[in-house]
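Technical note accompanying the year-one report. For the benefit of new consortium partners, we illustrate the data format agreed upon in the data management plan: each record pairs a sequence with a structure-token string. No post-processing was applied to the example shown here.
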Amino acid sequence: MGVDPFTLEIIKNGLIVANEEMFHAFGRTAKSPVIYEVLDYAVALSDAKGELVALAPGVPGFSGVLDFIAKEVLEKFGSNIKDGDIFISNVPYHSGTHLNDVTLSMPIFYKDTLMGFAINKGHWSEVGGMHFGSWTSDSTEIFQEGTQFPCIKLFIEGKPNKDVIDIIKYNSRLPDFTIGDMEAQAASLKVAARRVISLIEKYGLDAVQEAMEKILSDGEKYAKIKLKELPKGEFEAEDYIDDDGITDNPLYVRVKVKITDNEMIVDFTGSAEQAKGSINSPYPATVSGVRETYMAVTDPHAMPNGGYFRPLKVIAPEGTVFNPRRPAPTSTFWEAMSYTTDLVWKALAPHVPEKLSAGHFLSILATILGGVDDKTGEPFAIVEPQPGGWGASYNSDGESALVACGDGETYIASAEVYERRMPILVERYTLNTEDGVGHGKFRGGFGIIRNYMVLCNEASFTVSIGRSKFPPWGVEGGCQGPPNYCIVYKHNEEPKKVRKVAALKLVKGEMVSLRSAGGGGWGSPLERDPKLVQWDVKNEYITLDTARKVYGVVLDPKTLEINWNETKKMREELKKKGGAVCR
């Protein structure tokens, strides 16, 4: 190594800052709320071999596939990669998730030397397909889900490929939004490239290349140090995905996790074959989902890069729900991808309680609500995930109203922004204390209730909800959480409880109510500190009846003071009956 460690550290952090500037440049200049409000995207820098050397905060489910994209460009174009080229790709089986998640990648050259790639993967609100918003819960093949970009050149040596851009315009119901997001995305890549070039000009080409090599080698060494701290052996878990996307038939999924001092092998062999509907998780998304739990059990504060991920091996047989063959639909891929994170989490949680919690609400509760504004004649669209409740830990209650594991850094969209810019009323937004949580010595966090009322003549509503049949799981006697679901309120009809809806027509005054689940509990509810139960009652998280029947805690109805003698008797009585009643 010819460069001193201080300079190497400066360059490493310079690459991280370049990523962060790319991230913020996109968020500040994009056209769609799903980008500038929700931050539904992720960015990275790779070296010349496609290995990730730096990531910025972003959607974890996207971050874990970005190296697949860089390597796809290298494999397809090889020596035909030119300075100023920008590549566009979204085909799920090769490097992606679903067609809405479009990746732009740009090679970074210093003179004639390829240094690496700037990569940005973001959710475009519209890429065509059978329904408004493109992703849908009723597709049976990928051709129904939108326009496919099989890693082609969007810019050629710095000049826009107008033919490709015309295809994008003519295949989007929201062309202004789509092109606006595309232009912002391309501009963000150039910001990152300029920062990398400035590092080279300041410290030299050899120094920056050496820094990239050291980032990868240090990442691998550190990952193996953290693996040595984990329990060794084989750990298994199984579960069911609610349905195959078309029928009500649930899909069996399982995992075997093997941990040694040098590697973690995650094997999904035995899981269901690829689904008829759009819930399939492409292999890159499956790897990305596993990387989330891998980071959580090794070191969630570590710098994720290609070297850090080298000890991780993911096995998912082709033709299964975790590695579908073309032309399997994938537009609601998160319904299966989230299970890749959760199954590994479930297998390991009892063995590393200081690192992993009980099961969380898991589903993205992905929502599209859009149409045409009667006043302006302009199209509008809400495209967003919903937050929910996370599971309890061995020493604390779960967090409330956080996005699911795969969404990570995404924000909760502003009700004020929606109401100001769209014919939508956010009629209600509150913690979901009605359905409750998974009770336990430590309880899960609460989900949310979010109601949208339509204020224009007609709108279209699509939603995909998982963990509705098989709720969040508890640990060591903790209760499972409630299910996720949605209620549709239409004129002259009884309210209807649904899990999935595709392009449902709503008219003015009709409403949907999204209800996410609370997380699972940890430990028996009869072991919960009565003062914590009292606190929950005082804050109207649970009722007096729940305190008594579930936790065995008796409170005075007027003062809400604990009756310690009656509480002792009640808990003994519940134990004799076999334990706490979860609901």
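Partners are asked to follow this layout when depositing records. The chain has a mean pLDDT of 95.
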